[in-house]
Structures are given as structure tokens and as C-alpha cells.
């Protein structure tokens, strides 16, 4: 019975995440800030809630966005500092970390001077301070991840109602 309960718990978490994906229209509705590049406004370990209904609500300078680049595995959380929009509504975006001196052009890769709309994974609309610190700790100490998962699974299997 406990195995079934553990399976239901994990399934419920997955279903909840998928519902967040549908509501936010984003493949990553929740992200953890992994670096200090956005301090003092957003700190390492803060959990950002994203929306990707940007077609309806246009991006503006000052928005905090999460963007993905093909040559990078980890998305980047930075602020939009400049936007160029043409008659066809094509958008060129320049971003920068609040705590960084230069803009992000070096991060974009060789020959790329601007981000395009498909690079944007979402815009932050809310954040939970330091709610993602457990994720950072588990990334810094991968063995802890397995110990924690083992303990939680063990508790779920041997625990009673």
C-alpha cells in the first residue's frame, strides 16, 4: 500500500507541474536563480514564477526574463535593457544581469548580437525569496540528492497513515 501511496505522491507532483506548464504557457514555469548576477533585486536561490503569454503582453525594458541559448544547457535569468521592434513585430532583445557591468552579448554566442523571441522561455511575474536553496544545495552536493530521495522514499514506504 505504501508503494502505491509513494507512486500517487510522485504522480500528483508531476501532474501539478504539468498544470503549471499549461497555465503559464511555459515549458519551465518555475526556475531557481543559480547565480548572483541579478543581485540585489533577485538573489541566488530565489524561485521565480514565469509566464510566457508575451504575445498578449509585450516585453518591455525592465522585465526580468529567462532565456535559453542553443549552445547552453542552463537557462539564464537577466533583465531586458533594450528592445527593438520592427513593423512586422519582430523583436530584438538585449539583456543584462543587474550585478554585471557589461551586457549579455558575450553570452549570446559568436555572431549573435541580440536575443530573438524564440529564445525567451518566460517572463518572471512573481518570486519566492530563497525557496530554491534546496535545489542549489543538491546541485552543489549531488550525493545529498540521493540521500534525501532515499530517506523520503523510505519514510513513505515504512510510514503509516
TrEMBL record:
Q: Catalytic activity annotated for this protein?
A: Cleavage of hydrophobic, N-terminal signal or leader sequences from secreted and periplasmic proteins
**What is this protein's function?**
Catalytic component of the signal peptidase complex (SPC) which catalyzes the cleavage of N-terminal signal sequences from nascent proteins as they are translocated into the lumen of the endoplasmic reticulum. Specifically cleaves N-terminal signal peptides that contain a hydrophobic alpha-helix (h-region) shorter than 18-20 amino acids.
Family (UniProt): Belongs to the peptidase S26B family.
The UniProt entry lists membrane topology as: Single-pass type II membrane protein
Q: Which organism is it from?
A: Chondrus crispus (Carrageen Irish moss)
Q: What is this protein called?
A: Signal peptidase complex catalytic subunit SEC11
Supply one GO CC term from the record: signal peptidase complex
Keywords, in A-Z order: Membrane, Transmembrane, Transmembrane helix
